[in-house]
Design a protein that fits this description.
Length: 128
């Protein structure tokens, strides 16, 4: 069984930065891709970014482009989300996700049901 554990959330002022981490554990963890979603209060869960595990190729939602950077450390089974120039509208619970099946181009993995493992979420609050 795979477990994803996020950390790094918190309260930050607008314009500030946060770095989220997600550590994966599991006997034979070999993801095709990992990524991040977020869900603001009263809104639907939305895609933020994804990274192809083998070569580090990345894809971002328009809202994240230019401000967020997703990266991974294969040796540590960890994915990161560096968030800069944060805005109040970035306030949400951020979820780490992983997909273990192959066969779909990573840049198409923007729906929640494209991923079969989810973390418990970490709260990010950006004050104005």
């Amino acid at each position: 069984q795979v477990q994803l554990v996020e950390s790094g959330g918190g309260l930050v002022q607008a314009g500030g930065s946060l770095r989220l981490s997600c550590a994966a554990s599991g006997r034979t963890f070999n993801p095709y891709a990992m990524g991040w979603f977020r869900q603001a209060s009263g809104k639907e869960r939305e895609f933020v970014a994804t990274i192809k595990w083998s070569d580090g190729s990345t894809h971002y939602a328009d809202s994240a482009k230019g401000r967020f950077t997703i990266s991974r450390d294969n040796a540590k089974n960890t994915v990161y989300l560096q968030m800069n120039s944060l805005k109040p509208e970035d306030t949400a619970v951020y979820y780490c996700v992983a997909r273990t099946s192959f066969g779909v181009s990573y840049y198409l993995l923007t729906r929640a049901n494209d991923y079969n493992y989810w973390g418990q979420g970490t709260q990010v609050t950006v004050s104005s």
